[in-house]
Each structure stands twice: as structure tokens, then as C-alpha cells.
Design a protein that fits this description.
Low-confidence stretches: none
CATH architecture: Alpha-Beta Complex
Radius of gyration: 20 Å
Strand order of the largest sheet: 8-11-9-10-12
Mean pLDDT: 88
CATH topology: Spore Coat Polysaccharide Biosynthesis Protein SpsA, Chain A
Strand content: 15-25%
Largest sheet: 5 strands, mixed, barrel
Distance between the termini: 52 Å
Order of helices and strands: EEEHEHHHEHHEEHEEEEHHEEHH
CATH class: Alpha Beta
Structural class: alpha/beta
CATH superfamily: Spore Coat Polysaccharide Biosynthesis Protein SpsA, Chain A
Number of helices: 11
Shape: globular
């Protein structure tokens, strides 16, 4: 079964990047010349997604503006004969079908996904968190979709995380089927290192059967007094198998300041127009 719809929650407050995010969504922070959210949407498109539902909140209007037409800018670029930049701007507004649903108050990731229920229309769907950039020739979401097509069951992306950082992830307990695939026995939201069943953490990519929405609806407020997606996944695994897949690729958690800076440096080093000057600058630091 094809996966054509994706939910991208972008309603978070982005408090780790204050004061910058007081007036700008964290998902719009630039990585060189494209905001973080551009890379997330590109991953969805390159995975075969053609219908995206953004779950937004207050102060997220600039995300809508970014993916919308911009007649004034386009006319300006035409007048200046900047055809290359004009094409880039026009391509952004025609990338994919995009819909926006407002999460009226920040009640957690599970609640954000649940707001898309009517649009999902009982179909399997992907979820991509708006502050994770994952770089790989085969997109992470496509890796999950391929596993979903093979087994017909929900699949979440995971990776090994440092033991002292388990409190930042949903940590899985599962039976390995091979080097990259687990059948999930349990998932615990943000456990302390001494309570974590493993160091395998869920990251911001998922492919779900539509039954996850019923499971989320049955959950009550959990960690942080929010409706947690992990609690919905725990209910789902009681009804059907849930798989955890160790994706291949390089992940940047751009909601973390250090990871955000690493993303900028790595993207600059992979940019033909910038890499030599950046290398010279790094060498000149003598560190």
C-alpha cells in the first residue's frame, strides 16, 4: 500500500532558541540558504509523499508564507533578470499539496497528530518532526515506507543514543529480527538512564497504520502533562505488531544548538561554492 500523506507537527514553542524564536518559528531557522523545514518537506517529497498536513500553532504564519506564492518577490526577480533565483522561489511554492491545521493549544505531540484525523481519512501515513534533518541518498522516510510495505505494520525510526541522553527520547525495548529491525515490546518516554530498557531511541520519523489515531485518542496526559505519542504507540503494539527500524543516514537535531551549528558547518562543507573558504577558515583557527 502506498503512503501518500504526511503529518508534520510544527506547533512547538522552540524555547531552546530564544530569543530568536520569539518572533520566528524554530523550523524556519536557516541552514545556509534554506530553512530547516524546507529540508524536511524535501525528504517527504523524495519519499513519494504528495500530500502534507502541517500542524501549526501561534506565530507559525511564516511557514505558511514560505510555501505560498510570492508575487511581489517574483516580479522583482523578473525585473532584475534573476532567472535562477526566480525558479528557486517558484519551485518552493509548487513543491507539494500542503494543508494547515491549527493546534489550538500545545498539548503534546500525540494531540498534534490527532488533529489531522479527518484529513488522514483512515489511510496509513507518515509523520516527520519539523526540527530533524536526516541526510542520506535514500530518505529516512522512504526506508520506513519500504518496511511498512513489506510487513504492513507501523514502523518507527530509531538509532543508538548516548546512555546519558535517554531522558530526551522515547526508548524502545524490542526483539531484534536482524541488524536493523526490531519488533517492539515497549517504548518508554524520556526515561532516566538507570530506568531505560536500552539505548535505542526513537527519532522524528514514523509511518503508522491509521489505528494509531484511535490509540492516541484513548491516552491521557503523560510525561510533561501532555498527550504523548509514545503512549499511543504502547497501546497500538497491544493490537498489532510495531516495528522499529535503525535507519541509515546522518541526523541533525536542529532543535539542539550544537547540532544546529554542526548542520550549518557540514552543509557548507558540501556546498561547492563555499567549501574551500570554509575549509580555509577552519584551518586558520588552528584548533
Amino acid at each position: 500500500m502506498e503512503i501518500k500523506k504526511a503529518v508534520i507537527p510544527v506547533a512547538g514553542m522552540g524555547t531552546r532558541f530564544l530569543p530568536a524564536t520569539k518572533s520566528m518559528p524554530k523550523e524556519m531557522l536557516p541552514v545556509i540558504d534554506r530553512p530547516v523545514i524546507h529540508h524536511v518537506v524535501e525528504e517527504a517529497i523524495n519519499s513519494g509523499i504528495d500530500d502534507i498536513i502541517f500542524i501549526t500553532g501561534r506565530s507559525k504564519r511564516s511557514i505558511e508564507d514560505y510555501f505560498d506564492d510570492s508575487p511581489e518577490l517574483e516580479n522583482h526577480l523578473k525585473m532584475k533578470n534573476k532567472e535562477k533565483m526566480l525558479k528557486i522561489v517558484q519551485d518552493i511554492s509548487s513543491m507539494v499539496d500542503i494543508h494547515y491545521i491549527r493546534q489550538k493549544e500545545p498539548r503534546g505531540l500525540g494531540d498534534a497528530i490527532l488533529t489531522a484525523r479527518k484529513h488522514i481519512n483512515d489511510e496509513p501515513f507518515a509523520v516527520l518532526l519539523g526540527d530533524d534533518i536526516i541526510v542520506n541518498e535514500k530518505p529516512c522516510t522512504k526506508q520506513l515506507i519500504d518496511n511498512f510495505i513489506k510487513y504492513g505494520r507501523s514502523t518507527i525510526a530509531v538509532e543508538e543514543v548516548p546512555r546519558d541522553k535517554t531522558g530526551s527520547y522515547g526508548i524502545i525495548q524490542g526483539k531484534p529480527l536482524d541488524d536493523s529491525l526490531y519488533i517492539m515490546d515497549d517504548i518508554i518516554e524520556k526515561p532516566a538512564p538507570e530506568d531505560a530498557p536500552s539505548n535505542i531511541g526513537a527519532i522524528g520519523r514514523y509511518v503508522f497504520t491509521p489505528e494509531i489515531l484511535d490509540c492516541i485518542k484513548k491516552t491521557t496526559a503523560g510525561v510533561g502533562n501532555e498527550i504523548q505519542l509514545t503512549d499511543g504507540i504502547r497501546l497500538l503494539k497491544e493490537k498489532q505488531k510495531v516495528y522499529a527500524y535503525k535507519f541509515t543516514g546522518k541526523r541533525y537535531d536542529t532543535g539542539d544548538k550544537i547540532e544546529y551549528v554542526k548542520a550549518i558547518i557540514d552543509f557548507a562543507l558540501n556546498n561547492e561554492d563555499m567549501q574551500e573558504q570554509i575549509k580555509e577558515h577552519i584551518t586558520g583557527l588552528g584548533m
